[in-house]
Design brief:
With 302 residues, the chain is of the alpha+beta class. Helices cover 23% and strands 38% of the residues. Helix 2 runs parallel beside helix 3 (88-99).
Length: 302
């Protein structure tokens, strides 16, 4: 995987490049005069998405957008207007619409949220951490791994998405707050067929983080295993023996076979009634709720 050093997206400064701050504040105050609350919300967003299906890249998209929203609230009534054009003319039109909710006014503006410098996530652009080919290669690797887990897998769909939202919020009291919000996601869907019957399972993960950590095999491999386990286990598909690694359970040498049975050195146990636990990575059975000795993932009742 080719990894690039993340680049911070150009600073979002709408009051330096698109609007005069003093003029925008006056328009906002006129729109919210006599209201309980209100604000001007300006944003710029960049997003990309890759979808890998049936062994090939089916979708690769990139989207860029920007705009603003103006809100005025009085009692149970809220007036809201938005536009994709960030200009004084568009702001004036939005203020006239939002003002309709305030009417004659008479309310007192609520205090704004308490200020904080607490850092909850990075402000780096998550799309800049890896190259286009590297992202496609990871999706192909996910596809190959899922098909190798079980011979009954007939279709694999994997997607990867990332976005970077930059916002500036101006309140009637003159307070200006800004935030950069990354968002990333990886989803996996696996379909298996047995005796003409098909079942599918899905799993995914992500959050307000960079994309590179999600592209690591240690992150997406458990998701693929979970996608395979999710539907197949509860619908009686069992697991193919080649998908599971043998392991030692004390003096029991265990190995999965088809139709959810366990062969030990002593007898054959039906897993549907036996008091065993199934590892989250479906790599083995253990006899108590502890960490799997093979993959270190927490186990849970089957």
């Amino acid at each position: 995987m080719t990894v690039k050093i993340p680049q911070k997206m150009d600073a979002f400064t709408p009051f330096d490049t698109m609007l005069d701050r003093d003029r925008a504040l006056q328009i906002l105050r006129d729109a919210t005069n006599g209201a309980d609350d209100g604000e001007l919300f300006i944003e710029r967003k960049r997003a990309e998405m890759f979808a890998f299906d049936d062994g090939r890249l089916k979708t690769a998209s990139y989207d860029a957008s920007e705009g603003f929203g103006l809100r005025a609230v009085k009692g149970e009534t809220a007036g809201y207007a938005h536009a994709t054009e960030i200009s004084e003319a568009a702001l004036l039109r939005a203020a006239q619409t939002a003002r309709l909710a305030v009417g004659a006014g008479g309310a007192t503006l609520a205090d704004g949220p308490q200020a904080t410098n607490r850092r909850l996530y990075t402000d780096e652009n998550p799309m800049d951490g890896a190259s286009f080919p590297a992202k496609v290669d990871v999706l192909k690797e996910i596809d190959d791994f899922a098909r190798g887990l079980d011979g009954r897998v007939v279709q694999v769909s994997a997607s990867m998405a990332a976005s970077h939202q930059q916002v500036a919020i101006l309140r009637p009291d003159g307070t200006l707050v800004q935030d950069d919000r990354p968002m990333t996601r990886i989803n996996v869907s696996v379909m298996a067929e047995k005796d003409g019957r098909r079942e599918s399972g899905t799993a995914g993960g992500g959050g307000r983080d960079l994309l590179v950590p999600l592209m690591e095999r240690s992150y997406w491999e458990p998701l693929v295993r979970e996608a395979l386990r999710a539907k197949l286990a509860q619908n009686g598909f069992g697991f193919a023996s080649q998908a599971i690694k043998p392991s030692l359970l004390g003096r029991f040498s265990a190995l999965f076979i088809s139709e959810a049975e366990l062969i030990t050195g002593f007898d054959k146990i039906d897993l549907r009634t036996a008091p065993f636990f199934l590892c989250h990575n479906i790599c083995q059975l253990v006899t108590q709720a502890t960490n799997c000795v093979a993959c270190k993932y927490r186990v849970h009742p089957k």
